[in-house]
């Protein structure tokens, strides 16, 4: 059976995760999605809550909790996946696991944003879909990757 998250609740990880979500939103706010284009990627409140819950769940079994995480942010559109940032959760801790958070653009926006991936200056706010994927890789073990689709 899955561990009860209430039993594994760590107030320090809760605070750290809240700060991490602020960093994630700031990173998405300046995401380069094309050669010369920037867009502010907006996380709906529902997506923010889901990602936060999932990151805490994935960190609860780690030796250093969320402090031992490296977080890679990617935005997927179509079959392409764009790297938008890398975050070391706590630079004072040797990372024990890597999380790749793959966010998706709201598919209803695709016709409106096709021009964003060509050159030329522009700035447009884009909303992310509430669907996402998290890939967890333990850095101290040879275990297979864990992929969570939400």
Structure write-up:
By secondary structure, the protein is an alpha/beta fold. The protein has one domain (5-136): RTP801-like (Ribosomal Protein L22, Chain A), CATH 3.90.470. Helix content is 25%, strand content 36%. The chain has three helices and seven strands. Strands 1, 2, 3, 4, 5, 6 and 7 form a seven-stranded mixed sheet that branches. A hairpin with a 7-residue loop joins strand 6 and strand 7 (146-149). Helix 1 crosses helix 2 (45-59). 21% of the residues are buried. The model is unreliable at 1-5 (pLDDT under 50). GO terms for molecular function: 14-3-3 protein binding. This is DNA damage-inducible transcript 4 protein. It is found in: Cytoplasm; Mitochondrion. Belongs to the DDIT4 family. One of its GO terms (cellular component) is mitochondrion.
Summarize the structure.
The chain has helices at residues 11-29, 45-59, 110-113, and strands at 31-32, 38-42, 69-77, 80-88, 97-105, 123-138, 146-149. It is an alpha/beta fold and 150 residues long.
List keywords for this structure.
about 150 residues; alpha/beta; Ribosomal Protein L22, Chain A; 7-stranded mixed β-sheet; 3 helices; 7 strands; about 25% helix; about 35% strand; disordered N terminus; 14-3-3 protein binding; RTP801-like_C_sf; mitochondrion
């Amino acid at each position: 059976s899955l561990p009860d998250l209430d039993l594994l609740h760590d107030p320090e990880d809760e605070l750290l995760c809240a700060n991490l979500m602020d960093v994630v939103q700031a990173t998405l706010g300046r995401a380069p999605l094309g050669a010369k284009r920037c867009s502010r990627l907006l996380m709906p409140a529902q997506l923010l809550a889901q990602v936060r819950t999932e990151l805490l769940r994935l960190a609860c079994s780690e030796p250093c909790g969320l402090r031992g995480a490296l977080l890679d942010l990617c935005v997927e559109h179509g079959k392409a996946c764009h790297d938008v940032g890398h975050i070391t959760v706590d630079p004072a801790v040797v990372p024990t696991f890597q999380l790749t958070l793959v966010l998706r653009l709201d598919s209803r926006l695709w016709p409106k944003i096709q021009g964003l991936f060509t050159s030329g200056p522009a700035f447009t706010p884009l909303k992310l879909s509430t669907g996402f994927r998290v890939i967890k890789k333990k850095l101290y073990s040879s275990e297979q990757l864990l992929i969570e689709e939400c």
